[in-house]
Amino acid sequence: MDRNAPIGVFDSGIGGLTVAREIMRQMPKERMVYFGDTARLPYGSKSQETILRYSRQIIRFLISKKVKAIVIACNTASAYALETVEKELDIPIIGVIRAGAKTAVNATRNGKIGVIGTEATISSGIYTDVMTRMRPGIEVTAKSCPLFVPLVEEGLRHDSVTDEIASRYLSVLKGRFVDTLVLGCTHYPLIRSTVGRIMGEDVTLVNPAYETAIELKNLLEEKGLSCCTDGEAHEKYKFYVSDLAEKFTVFATSILPDDVKRTEKINIEDY
Ligand code: DGL
Fold first, then answer.
1. Domains defined for the chain, CATH in brackets
2. Which pLDDT tens digits describe the chain residue by residue (271 residues)?
3. Nearest Cα to Cα of residue 251 among 60, 41, 72, 6
4. Whose CA is closest to atom 2 on ligand 1?
5. Which of 104, 173, 236, 264 has the most CB atoms within 10 Å of its CB?
6. Residue 145 appears among annotated catalytic residues
7. Cα-to-centroid distance, 100 and ligand 1 (Å)
């Protein structure tokens, strides 16, 4: 395997850019191919069967781009597809859940952890399972927040509507006195300040994107796959989507450290 090959990162859309951003920050030499499934978003309200089918198609696409490792930068796809697809691949693949769970378990002081995510992620129970396996006896309160994704997508990150909805969703977690809260959906780090204000400064917010980038870095080092050359900026990162390339480009430019020059639309059903 070529250690200078790109890392493949995928999500149901723009949310995984929060993971891509961390990889860019922590591993500035690495090349990346990002795919956002903007035509078929949201994944958070779909069945496991559908999410697995979508994930397999995207993995075939990324492999056609000769990636050396894959990051499922989507909590929902990590919850429903990772365990199956990792058995089918001969390159390393990681999701975002284990890293976030581990950080939360290490961060909690009172043993009460909250998790917020899409309906699919929360009903999979995966965060609760992983965290209670890591530390039996902890109390996990999980709450789906289905309106957060459309609010972020509509550009209402700093809006009173988002404040109001967040207060309603988060009241159950406050009532359970959680001292640590996992932002278990790719979009939620983008409303971190709102969530933090409502939960209060004593609650530690865990962004799995940050920890996932650390896990990836360690994995690449361990497998001798860390990149060792500097690439040209214009070809270092490539962005593909299944729909609305222009909209993606604007959003990606607003959250990534460098401007995104171009996003290519592909037909993911061909893979
Ligand atoms: N990327 C998804 C996740 O992290 C959120 C958006 C969606 O529902 O597709 O769960």
1. 7-95+210-270 (3.40.50.1860), 97-207 (3.40.50.1860)
2. 899 999 999 999 999 999 999 999 999 999 999 999 999 999 999 999 999 999 999 999 999 999 999 999 999 999 999 999 999 999 999 999 999 999 999 999 999 999 999 999 999 999 999 999 999 999 999 999 999 999 998 889 999 999 999 999 999 999 999 999 999 999 999 999 999 999 999 999 999 999 999 999 999 999 999 987 765 555 799 999 999 999 999 999 998 988 898 999 999 999 9
3. 41
4. 74
5. 104
6. no
7. 15
Cα 80 to Cα 134: distance, rounded to the nearest angstrom? 20
Cβ(121) – ligand 1 distance below 6 Å:
yes
Q: Which of 78, 143, 186 to mutate to test the pocket of ligand 1 (most atoms within 8 A of CB)?
A: 186
Q: Is 228 a catalytic residue?
A: no
Q: Is 237 helix (H, G, I), strand (E, B) or coil?
A: strand
Q: Does the C-beta of 17 come closer than 6 Å to ligand 1?
A: no
Q: Tell me the pTM.
A: 0.94
Q: Which residue's CA is minimally distant from atom 7 of ligand 1? A: 42
How far does residue 217's CA lie from ligand 1's centre (Å)?
Answer: 23
Q: What's the chain's length in residues?
A: 271
Choose one of 18, 38, 43, 212 to mutate for the ligand 1 pocket test, by most ligand atoms within 8 angstroms of C-beta: 43
Ligand 1 center from residue 189 Cα (angstroms)? 12
Instruction: Name the one residue in this structure whose structure tokens are 């490539």.
Output: 238
The gap between the terminal CA atoms of the chain, to the nearest Å, is: 22
Give the orientation angle of helix 17-26 with respect to helix 245-255, to 10 degrees.
Answer: 50
Distance (angstroms) between ligand 1 centre and the Cα of 190 equals 13
CB-count burial class (<10 Å; 0-12, 13-18, 19+) for 188: buried
